[in-house]
Amino acid sequence: MSIDFEELDYQQTPLGELTLRRRRLRSLGNFDVFEVKLADAFLMSSLFHVVEEELATRGLAELPSGEWDVVVGGLGLGYTAVAALEHASVRSLLVIDALAPVIEWHRRGLVPLGSRLTSDSRCRLVNGDFFALAASETGFDFERPERKFHAILLDIDHSPRDLLHPLNATFYTTDGLRALATHIRPGGVFAMWSDEPPDEEFMHVLDSAFIDSRAHVVTFPNPLLESESASTVYVTRKPVVP
After folding, report:
1. Backbone Cα Rg of the chain
2. pLDDT digit string (tens) for 25-83?
3. In this model, does residue 6 exceed pLDDT 70?
4. What is the pLDDT of residue 241?
5. What are the two backbone dihedrals, phi and then psi, of residue 208, each rounded to the nearest 5 degrees?
6. Edge-to-edge, what's the strand order for the sheet holding 90-97?
């Protein structure tokens, strides 16, 4: 393999073939880009991480001052988790990922942000099915069942309609989101990334389980297309019961 392209890891997973690649883009300044593919689909690239960071920034901005316990659904290349840890108010961060190899990439230092996450005592990486845990009574923390969190940030499926697995669809329903809400403290936040424009129908579903639902369109430069691209960050809150 040339220095311009390297396959860092390849694993068979229940969701398909998972590949981590490093590509050197000479046309964009001769720097390394890390890419993740699941089967034939590109899951993420280190070339585009503005929205992942905005997911944490916009979601946590809705919380009152204090110390926060946060869940991130989907580890990926770690941008959302690192952006969350940049907030001094984050007391603990639980990062859930269904793909064990992704967690191992960070622990082995195969991805740029791995050491940042694994060296922070506030952060714990957990191999688990976010959607199954969201629907369960015990919740996300295997060590502390029924634990509740100040914020849950989700970046797994491409959108509420473009799913990595058909079984995930039940999460994006009123019942699925109400089950998620049981793991959030009153006044806490649920925020979610989507690669599609704001979906009015999904906004109504959010409103059936939460309050003050908003869709933020986040634009970012796409040097490969020499134009701007856009994604959506949904932010909503759990009501404070008097």
Report:
1. 18
2. 766 666 789 999 998 888 888 888 899 999 999 999 999 999 999 999 999 999 999 99
3. yes
4. 77
5. -75, -15
6. 123-127, 90-97, 68-73, 149-154, 184-194, 227-237, 211-222
β-sheet with 16-25: strand ranges across: 5-13, 16-25, 31-38, 41-45
- Contact predicate 160/116, CB 8 Å: no
d(CA 156, CA 116): 21
Q: Which two tokens stand for residue 214?
A: 């908003």
pLDDT by residue (tens digit) across 151-197?
999 999 999 999 999 999 999 999 999 999 999 999 999 999 999 99
- Report the alpha-carbon distance of residue 208 to residue 205 in Å, rounded: 5
Pick the CATH number of 49-237 from 3.10.50.30, 2.60.40.420, 3.40.50.150, 3.40.50.720: 3.40.50.150
Q: What is the pTM of this model?
A: 0.94
By CB atoms closer than 10 A (0-12, 13-18, 19+), residue 184 is buried
Residue with tokens 């993420």, as numbered in its chain: 44
Domain spans, the chain? 49-237
Return the structure tokens found at 107.
């622990």
Mean pLDDT, residues 202-221: 95
Cα dihedral 90, 239, 197, 132 sign: positive
Give the integer Cα–Cα distance in Å for 18 and 129: 16
Rounded distance, CA 31 to CA 23, Å? 8
Of 16, 155, 24, the residue nearest 34 (C-alpha): 24
Which residues touch 101 (CB under 8 Å, ≥6 apart)? Answer: 9, 11, 13, 18, 20
